[in-house]
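Sample 3 of the quickstart, ligand heme C:
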Amino acid sequence: MSRGRIVLAVIAMILVLGLLVFSWIAFGPGAMDFAGGHRVALEKYSGTSPTGVPADFASTDPVARGEYLTKAADCQACHTAKGGAPFAGGLAFKLPFGTIWSPNITPDRDTGIGGWSDAQFLRALREGIDDQGQHLYPAMPYAAYTYLTDADALAIRAYLRTVPAAHREPPPTALSFPFNQRRLMSVWSLLFNPKRRFEPNADRSPAWNRGAYLAEAMGHCGDCHTPRNLLQALDNRHKYAGAVAAGWRAFNITGDKATGVGGWSDAELAQYLSQGHAPGRGTAAGPMGEAVDLSLSHLTPSDIAAMVTYLRTIPPVSTPDQPRPATGPAPATHRFAAADSAAPLGKKIFEGACIGCHAWSGNGALNGLATLNGSRAVNDPSATNVAQVIISGASRRTAQGQSVMPAFGHAYSDAEIAAVANYVTTRFGAKPSSVTPKQVARLRKAT
Ligand code: HEC
Ligand code: HEC
Ligand code: HEC
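Result:
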């Protein structure tokens, strides 16, 4: 063969390989493909409809139904700034190449969506195209909301018309080239937005289908819990196997026994989702705490049970970076050789600022929520969420009132936070962490 031919053959091989890699990324499985079976159009499904509000809510007025669905879809979490008016936008989504700001979706005509037609609203929600015809970034989970029925999407719209109009213009989104080219999102959308409504799976139970609708069309669990591919779309080959969301680790929630939630009972899962805590399994903080407060805690027990039914069928994926959580309390004495020598500064801080609520045993002196043992966060050798909880604190509504862990982000330096985080994982977890002050600085910036 001549040299020219060899060069040509090599180029052809590289092109074919590139095409294969691209197809592998672009044409992965859809969110519910793992379930197999055959899907039917909603009108043809013979079971109870998986869409709309649960039966206990069906007799309420349209606005109350819309409110229930708006909470299930958790629009408020992203469309509200810290301490800002609900739905008035202004929450920052920090990316390596700039910041996306969530818009105001209150009925204000100038700065909100009061002037939008229903058709424009449906298009933004499910296709990711705004009233000006501009493409939205997938920070807005339209690839999940695309599964919403017209009726449910319009019920959400009806509720949003009743929230107080806030006159507030969030800062403009500013990304660097080429990411500032919104038109590129049309290609993304073509590849990764399924652009179809929810189709029930005829081979699964009505509860499973309801759970699928709640988790995929509404709660967009995958947005945080499914890792992303090179093109920032969800990689459903590792569905729900865990990912990092806004500087927090959203853990593996597949059926894997050691590294996912396969070892949890149905009751534990239901309690964690509806109350943000299950004894011996930890307490939801950060973005999950918010999802519980604003969304999941408002769902009926039947809807939570349906979601658990669905979660149980997610194929197990093992994530060996997460060890099986340590069981049982740490010793009730202050001595703990491994932790004492690994993080002496951490011990000093823990003794001074933390044992009052957490106890040397980690069993929670304050209340059950403050139990450190068994929590995935405490057993995660990256200590990401442990550091985040120390930085931002956490708070949870209980029957006895608000239970609060104060934020220590202002009180402590990066080195102090790293030291106490490493002390906590070494003393109470399965594997010690070695978070550095530099990593803590990065975590602060990511939230
Ligand atoms: C995970 C975060 C997130 C959630 C949840 C979310 N949004 Fe958004 N939404 C965004 C972001 C970010 C943008 C702006 C995207 C951009 O600038 O390209 C946006 C844009 C929009 C827009 C376009 C507004 C405009 O002025 O251009 C509408 C309408 C909207 N969202 C409605 C909703 C509704 C209704 C829900 C709940 C069903 C919801 N969003 C849930 C993050 C979210
Ligand atoms: C905005 C991001 C986000 C969304 C949306 C979200 N999660 Fe989470 N989830 C997290 C984070 C972060 C954690 C870890 C919380 C912690 O350590 O305190 C978590 C933890 C969990 C856990 C506990 C796992 C463990 O091993 O401790 C379960 C179960 C869970 N989520 C289920 C769900 C389900 C079901 C949905 C959809 C209805 C959902 N999550 C939606 C971010 C999210
Ligand atoms: C005033 C009581 C109080 C103090 C002081 C306190 N905590 Fe907490 N902590 C709590 C409560 C309550 C929770 C559960 C909060 C929630 O998630 O809603 C918690 C949660 C945590 C968690 C997450 C547990 C899980 O389930 O994932 C960690 C880690 C933690 N605290 C570490 C610390 C450290 C380190 C200190 C000292 C620097 C500290 N706490 C000080 C009350 C406290």
